[in-house]
Design goal:
The protein is built from 19 helices and 15 strands. It is an alpha/beta fold. A six-stranded mixed beta sheet has the order 1-6-5-2-3-4, with helices on both faces. A hairpin with a 2-residue loop joins strand 7 and strand 8. Helix 10 crosses helix 11 and helix 12 packs across helix 16. The longest helix is centred in the first third of the chain and has 18 residues.
Length: 408
């Protein structure tokens, strides 16, 4: 078994592999190449993408070449996986702007070193997809796909079972994703596609296309569906998505997200989202009571250091200690108590931070309200017991008005 597979399994990354024995043999030689695709639907990736990025990072640490494929072409179609309706179609200008923002995450988390051996590649599938002509594509690629089988794929079947429309545009997505694998194998020797468990059907089709068209060795690997111990989707909070770019979410807000992890998730998140030795991960994950809070701070600091740098992570930890733990915090910040969960709108009024709910709604629309330093984008957001850090949640209105919310 290759180091990559054994380490990935130990840390909790693996869900399915098309041919584990064959892949293990292939990875026994350094320099293999694997890719994950990322459509350009926003100008930043979010924590929901982080599992795949950490897997690419591990792949690189094991002596292989990771490839981050930007979906400059597939974004024009829209991936129907996990969707109940068609994604909003973006203009070419929107997609180009989003590419620039997304690239920054890969610069931070992968070793992108030009042509050096093992250096990560950042590619764009618009390079080949935008040049396709329809009839040749149908003849050369489309003939290898069975519509009967495509109708059984989760991304398609879910829509049909619910009598929800699936456009012919979206139906083509899995063909284009499979074609990406074929092109990457030909251009860069990529032999492995990785992605979330919802991509399994598309990945298998890409593996089969490489074998049928080029008689080439190809493999697929998926990560598990990641939810919190409470059953919520990883990376989703009451305040919205947890973005990776600092313009969307500052290092302190990112630190706070990890600090707010549920007790039962700490060990799992340390294994997946930090590079701490597993012996220490297990020790920290086994803590309980007040000691688990120290493990959460370590998780927050280590995860933030990977993305934003050690200095930013240490600064975020120090700021949190001042705001939530230092004795002077209770003196300098007003504090209110409430029965939780409670609407943010009500708490802002109760704390005297706004004159009315109407003012609070206006500030939310303008991006001026923050919960634990993460922007609140939904007027119905509530402060829950899960938002408390060492007994308090921090509400902010603008840059100068802050208050601590405690449960009564």
């Amino acid at each position: 078994m290759s180091d990559f597979i054994s380490i990935a399994r130990e840390r909790g990354f693996l869900h399915q592999i098309t041919d584990e024995a064959g892949l293990s043999t292939r990875l026994g030689t350094p320099g293999a190449a694997a890719y994950v695709g990322f459509d350009c639907t926003a100008d930043s990736l979010h924590v929901g993408h982080l599992l795949s990025i950490m897997l690419l990072r591990l792949f690189q640490r094991c002596g292989h070449r990771p490839v981050a494929l930007l979906g400059g072409g597939t974004t024009k179609i829209g991936d129907p996986s996990g969707r109940d309706e068609q994604r909003q179609l973006l203009t070419d200008a929107n997609i180009e702007t989003n590419k620039v923002g997304i690239r920054r995450t890969f610069d931070a988390l992968l070793d992108v070193g030009g042509g050096a051996p093992g250096a990560a590649l950042m590619l764009d599938n618009a390079v080949w997809l935008d040049k396709l002509t329809y009839i040749p594509f149908l003849r050369d690629v489309g003939r290898h796909f069975s519509v009967n089988r495509m109708l059984t794929m989760d991304s398609v079947k879910r829509r049909l079972d619910r009598d929800q429309p699936l456009s012919f545009l979206e139906f083509n997505y899995m063909l284009l994703q499979s074609y990406d694998f074929l092109e990457l194998r030909r251009r860069h020797g990529v032999m492995l596609q990785m992605g979330g468990s919802d991509q399994w059907g598309n990945i298998v089709m890409g593996v089969e296309l490489c074998r049928r068209v080029d008689a080439a060795e190809a493999f697929g690997l998926t990560t598990p569906l990641l939810t919190t111990a409470a059953g919520t989707k990883m990376g989703k909070t009451a305040a919205g998505a947890v973005w990776l770019n600092p313009e969307r979410l500052a290092a302190y807000g990112y630190w706070q997200f990890w600090r707010n992890a549920e007790d039962a998730d700490v060990g799992r998140f340390l294994a997946l989202f930090t590079e701490m030795p597993m012996l220490e991960v297990r020790r920290l994950g086994a803590l309980s009571g007040s000691e688990i809070n120290e493990a959460k701070k370590i998780l927050a600091t280590e995860a933030t250091a990977l993305l934003h740098g050690r200095a930013a992570a240490d600064a975020a930890a120090a700021t949190a200690a001042q705001v939530f733990e230092a004795g002077e915090a209770a003196e300098t910040l007003p504090s209110i108590t409430a029965t939780l969960p409670a609407p943010v709108l009500d708490l802002l009024v109760q704390a005297g931070m706004v004159a009315s709910k109407a003012e609070a709604r206006r500030m939310i629309r303008q991006g001026g309200i923050r919960l634990n330093d993460a922007a609140v984008s939904d007027e119905t957001t509530q402060v829950t017991p899960g938002d408390l850090r060492d007994g308090a949640a921090k509400l902010s209105a603008g840059k100068k008005r802050h208050a601590l919310v405690r449960a009564d």
